[in-house]
Write a structure and sequence with these properties.
With about 210 residues, the protein is α/β, with parallel strands linked by helices. It is about 55% helix and about 10% strand. It has 9 helices and 5 strands, in the order E-H-E-H-E-H-E-H-E-H-H-H-H-H.
């Protein structure tokens, strides 16, 4: 199945600005969707594709900065490029601190916006790839037995089978079997590979100070 084309959302309450930006973005082969307000954008269903948002900072209704915060509060992670005709240092600092990737004051160079859009799309692609990888790892982890889930954090601390067996009150031979099976189910090629997977899953190693 073909991957959907990257998508650029433009939210600006000035129609001529929306049309100008649309022509510019389409000229480099990208899809674009236009919205006159933050409220209009919130009503749209976001497709599963690399995307970024070009957002006017001064909108009628919800302002760009307030909308940035709303998106973050809703768990919507989309790279934001702010544009404004009335930029000031305080606003740009607040926007960048909240995670915006660029703050452009009109009139800006077309290339500056296009460069920022490409950075935004690349960041979103990386984020989506990370999320997809974690989802795959979570599915593998869910396939482990309860005992294998107990063994995994002990394995990633580097404990030998004998100590893992003592910790869990099972035999060393049973520990070897559980270890082998969880490595296979997690599709880990090595212990360092399994450690990286555990880190991505947020599985913390137990305190081994007593060992």
């Amino acid at each position: 199945m073909m991957e959907p084309k990257p998508l650029v959302y433009v939210v600006d309450d000035d129609q001529s600005t929306r049309e100008t930006l649309s022509s510019l973005i389409r000229s480099v082969g990208l899809q674009v969707q236009l919205f006159a307000s933050a409220e209009d954008f919130q009503r749209c269903i976001l497709p599963d594709t690399d995307a970024c948002l070009v957002l006017d900072i001064r909108l009628r209704g919800t302002s760009g900065l307030d909308f940035q915060r709303k998106l973050a509060d809703s768990g919507i992670s989309i790279p934001i490029i702010f544009i404004t005709g009335h930029g000031d240092v305080r606003m740009s600092v607040r926007a960048m601190k909240a995670g915006a990737i660029e703050f452009l004051t009109k009139p800006f160079r077309d290339q500056d916006l296009l460069d920022a859009i490409h950075v935004g799309l690349a960041k979103d692609r990386e984020r989506r790839e990370r999320c997809a990888e974690v989802a795959r790892l979570q599915a593998r982890f869910a396939a482990l037995t309860p005992r294998q889930r107990q063994v995994l954090p002990l394995v990633v601390t580097g404990l030998p089978n004998k100590q893992i067996a003592a910790e869990l009150g099972i035999t060393e031979s049973a520990t070897k079997v559980h270890r082998s099976q969880l490595m296979r189910k997690m599709r880990a090629d090595s212990l360092p590979d399994l450690v990286r997977m555990a880190e991505k899953l947020g599985i913390s190693s137990p305190d081994n100070s007593k060992h």
